[in-house]
Write a structure and sequence with these properties.
The chain is of the alpha+beta class. The protein contains eight helices and 16 strands. The strands form three sheets. Strands 5, 6, 7, 8, 9, 10, 13, 14, 15 and 16 form a ten-stranded antiparallel β-sheet that branches. Helix 1 runs parallel beside helix 5 and helix 6 crosses helix 7.
């Protein structure tokens, strides 16, 4: 069985460290003798490597990295027989958690030796793939600002926290026109509007606790603006599986949605920021991706 492992050498705490990369390579060979490993060299490289692996008949491609690396790898496997496997090495690891993967590499690798193949839905935002979440609102703005700041080399958790703290006090919800499936268009002004294929952003922060990767639908979750003290008190509820603060969220199951906002729309795909003009189209693509879940 041919396997390819794609590693983002700058994900998590690797920082391109050759010793850490060599340790991962050794762990892979210990669990999967003869497997191939490639390092990503630039944005989009994981997609190219995954597409080549599918063309060459690999049984699975395992993405080692955060949600961005996993998303890129999946793009090369849509519609192919080659499955996506996931080994988390990011910060939130939202999609890996949805698949039930252990977060430690030493525990995750053996769990893929007898995988459970499954079909997984994927989302599309203006035609671009997302596996877990897409959305507009405060978190998309934070992601965009963080990306812009990162161009100067100023990244990490502390800059992200500072951007998020500032946004929490300064962000003003935009008025969106939203049309879903065959329903009449509505006008919404949410703090954030999330389209969830999986349940969580990562770190067990579950924005859509009833969402499923296999139900052929997206959970559209609107989080309404509220006084900051009320939002702070409600935050712990998002780390539970069911309870949600009354009146702060509204969830609708959808297959398609169109968001209209004159001018610039900032949004994100699995945490990666994007911009478009005037219209954002969201859709679900059922059972489009083969995945490996870990053995029980």
């Amino acid at each position: 069985m041919k396997l390819l492992f794609i590693l983002n050498p700058h994900s998590g705490k690797l920082n391109g460290d050759p010793d850490k990369i060599a340790a991962i390579a050794s762990a892979i060979q210990l669990n999967f003798p003869g497997a191939d490993m490639r390092l990503t060299q630039a944005p989009g490289h994981a997609t190219e490597l995954a597409r080549q692996a599918a063309q060459n008949g690999y049984a699975a491609v395992a993405a080692i990295g955060g949600d961005g690396t996993i998303n890129e790898t999946a793009r090369g496997l849509i519609g192919a027989n080659t499955a996506l496997a996931v080994l988390p090495n990011g910060s939130g690891n939202g999609f890996a958690r949805e698949l039930g993967m252990p977060l430690l590499l030493q525990e995750a690798l053996p769990r893929l030796q007898k995988p459970r193949p499954a079909k997984c839905d994927v989302g599309r935002a203006n035609g671009e793939l997302f596996l877990n979440l897409a959305g507009v609102g405060i978190e998309a703005d934070i992601a965009w600002q963080f990306m812009e700041q990162g161009k100067s080399g100023n990244r990490g958790k502390w800059p992200y926290f500072k951007i998020g703290a500032k946004a929490a006090f300064s962000y003003r919800p935009k008025t969106l026109r939203v049309q879903t499936d065959n329903e009449p268009e509505r006008t919404l002004a949410p703090l954030t509007l999330v389209f969830a294929n999986g349940r969580q952003y990562g770190s067990n922060f579950k924005i859509a606790p009833e969402a499923s990767l296999t139900d052929g639908e997206l959970d559209m979750v609107a989080v309404w603006n509220a006084p900051k003290w009320k939002l702070a008190l409600a935050a712990p509820a998002f780390f539970t599986d069911h309870w949600r603060p009354f009146g702060l969220t509204q969830t609708t199951r959808v297959k398609r949605a169109r968001i209209t906002l004159p001018g610039e729309i900032v949004y994100h795909l699995d945490g990666e920021p994007r911009k478009t003009q005037n219209t954002l189209e969201i859709a679900i693509e059922p059972a489009a991706l083969n995945v490996w879940r870990p053995c029980l």
